[in-house]
Amino acid sequence: MCGIVGIYSHEPVASELYDSLIHLQHRGQDAAGILTCEQRFYSQSGLGLVQEVFTSENVLALKGNIGIGHTRYPTAGGYTASDIQPLWIGSPRGIALAHNGNLSNYQELADEIRLKQYRHLNSSLDSEALLLMFADQLVNEASKKKEDDDDFFELLCKAVDYIFNHVEGAYSIVSTVIGKGLVAFRDPHGVRPLVWGTRTRSDNSKDIIFASETTPFYALGFKPEGDIQPGEVAYVNQAGKLYRRVIKTAEFRPCVFEYVYFARPDSTLNNVSVYRARLRMGQNLALQWKKKYPNILPDVVIPAPFTANTAALSFAHELGVRYSEGLYKNPFIGRTFIMPNQSTRKRNIRYKLTPQRTEIANKNVLIVDDSIVRGTTSREIVKMVREFGAKKIYFASTSPAIKNPCFNGIDIPSRQELIAAHLTDEEIAKYLGVDALMYQSHPDLIEAVTRRGRHQIKQPCMSCMDGNYFCNTINTQKMIQLEQQRKMNRLELEETET
């Protein structure tokens, strides 16, 4: 999972790309990069948080009124400086790209590029394969005559159509082409989010933004205009004219984990408020709890902060018990789920969370969390709450049990790491050390996401929960291959840390 942004402005854009990445930091803590365009590319990137990578001096050195940015949380490729996006090539055309998602047929694409384009890939990033294929198609479709912007948009649509028909997986893209402008497109299933907005200037001209979430819009003065549709390509020329076209349609399957965990609660994705969806998750979970455990009423409901706060609030309200933020979260410690390995995650849980003894001691505590993936975070939280004097501890997850790896851009890499893939609910409760455990049901989660909003979602992507890899040709052999590649990436990281 990553955060991407692209901005067309009538003024230098680098500082606003930086501000946007700050608002997308929750989507990736590993690395960050900005690339701008003014007759050539200017780029700055590095490992670490946005505020660690950039200084006022190197941001001011990024010239141009068109640019793209990226915050990285790796699900493919390595953990080195060469794996940081945006990626770019000087020839043909001069094209840069930032990608959110994951390509499940990366190896096949890489082989095709080597055999047909005679190009050597410099990384194991699936984004590099996507960039090279995109660039190759723009050249192959180019006419010999000098092209205007209308011609270029037609060429662009043909190139993106080729991508849609050859690339498997999830991908939302922002790109810039030297001498042409800003490009954005989204895979035909719309798995990963991509929203857009406008800002009207005093002369009635408009600036345009594309981003993973609406989170940067308010701070920068952009008005949300909606989503880039599944299978749609958008192009902003150098004069600010916007072109849009839906190239290919397929079953709309946006990732449900965006609503459960990844997106910031103040975002609106696919015309659905993330905050409201999480409120409904908590409400549905509480109704289910009352049916399953009619004789268990906790003294207090406590969220695992911050993602579960919203759902825990509505859970407590529906149950008629007190809500308390009984776990204090240090805001300067990152999100443990997206830390690169198990030992780092475990070490940071106690750095990140401190129990409030007055809210826990001598009480029956119900902990609400967004999910149980590996069980590492949940078990440590339960141990901490037990150490602070809880009489009984109950645990409720706003998502169903996660039993399958994700090949669409979430760091759920292998069945071996997933606790629910090997243990029953009773065994998981024992492992976590809780007196009662409950997961959200699949229908209740879908209902929570789809109950309100002018959207087209009928069945979100839940492949990590139900094993339905609808947009990939995933079989057992392919799954093993992808899991082994991810294991190699993690071993590579651990070697660099020792």
Automatic annotation (TrEMBL):
GO MF, any single term: magnesium ion binding
Cofactors named for this entry: Mg(2+); [4Fe-4S] cluster
Co-factor remark: Binds 1 Mg(2+) ion per subunit.
Keywords (A to Z) from UniProt: 4Fe-4S, Glutamine amidotransferase, Glycosyltransferase, Iron, Iron-sulfur, Magnesium, Metal-binding, Purine biosynthesis, Transferase
Family of this protein: In the C-terminal section; belongs to the purine/pyrimidine phosphoribosyltransferase family.
HAMAP family referenced in this protein's UniProt entry, alphabetically: PurF
Function: Catalyzes the formation of phosphoribosylamine from phosphoribosylpyrophosphate (PRPP) and glutamine.
Name of this chain's protein: Amidophosphoribosyltransferase
Organism in which the protein naturally occurs: Legionella donaldsonii
